[in-house]
Amino acid sequence: MTDLPIALVTGGAQGIGYACAEALKEDGHRVVLADINAEGVRAAADKLGGGTVGLPCDMSGPAQIAALFDTVEDQLGPVSVLVNNAGIASPGDFLDYSLEDFEKVISINLTGVFLATQRAAKGMIAAGIEGAIVNMSSINAQVAIPAIPAYCASKGGVQQLTKVAALALAPHNIRVNAVGPGSIDTAMMAGVNASPEALAKVLSRTPLGRVGGAREIGDVVAFLASKKASYVTGETIYVDGGRLGLNYTV
Predict the structure, then answer these.
(1) What is the predicted pLDDT for the residue at 192?
(2) DSSP type of residue 22
């Protein structure tokens, strides 16, 4: 067990998840990273230090999600902060998009978020913790890209699930919010960043004129997890350089 509040970050081996973990650690949390990449998540935990624990978990598997929380609770204690960050995109042509691919994305990006949120909330309630849950949505909860139908559908679902959970858990003083990143410099954007033409197209839709950094997402997540956001629940904060507010380009 630990005297520090426990923050669990899924998809924490790299990118936005790792940046969230850094910010939460700096805010005084004992961090647990979960990721399907077993070797990568342990390496990330070692890199972050400060007693960080790295645990392998496939967030598409209900049994694995349950086992993840069992392990954290048995070894460290109940979770005070949950960051549902794990997600995949799986692009493809809409007319040829397979049901298998669609269901795989939904199972991780939406069903996994539901299961983890539900389990974390039960642990918080049992321990009398007034905790915080932060879900990773996307600007694609509001706008859409035809090549990632399941991803867009899942992120729209995350936005609504965030509202539902916030209402359901408000009587227990558990806050649930989401962050919706725009174009962020992560592995998912590597192909775009490598193409000047593709990057120029992205930046033409981004009023601040640059790609965001993973830590810029992590800092907003840490804010929502903190007492500074004590009266904020059911919200999605879009960290997108102004993209959603853009009517047209000239």
Answers:
(1) 77
(2) H
The residue with tokens 């694609």 is 140
Asked if residue 190 has pLDDT above 80, the reply is: no
* Sign of CA pseudo-dihedral 97, 35, 20, 220: positive
**CA atoms 194, 195, 199, 200: torsion sign:** positive
Estimate the crossing angle of helix 149-169 against helix 99-106, to 10 degrees: 30
Nearest residue to 131 (alpha-carbon basis) of 165, 107, 99: 165
**pLDDT of 2 above 80:** no
DSSP 53-67: EEEE--TT-HHHHHH
Instruction: Please give the positions annotated as active site.
Output: 151
Query: Percentage of residues in the chain with pLDDT exceeding 70?
Result: 100
Look up the pTM and report it.
0.96
The per-residue pLDDT for 1 is 72
CATH class of 6-184+213-245: alpha beta
Domain chopping of the chain, boundaries = 6-184+213-245
Tokens of residue 161, six digits: 């699930």
Mean pLDDT of 17-46: 98
Say yes or no to pLDDT of 196 above 90.
no
Residues 146 and 94 sit within 8 Å (Cβ to Cβ): yes
Contacting residues for 131 by C-beta, under 8 A, at least 6 apart: 79, 80, 81, 82, 120, 121, 124, 174, 175
Report DSSP state, residue 85: -
pLDDT bin (cut points 50, 70, 90) of residue 23 is very high
Residue entry with tokens 């913790």: 129
Find, among 177, 129, 171, 119, the residue nearest to 5 by Cα. 129
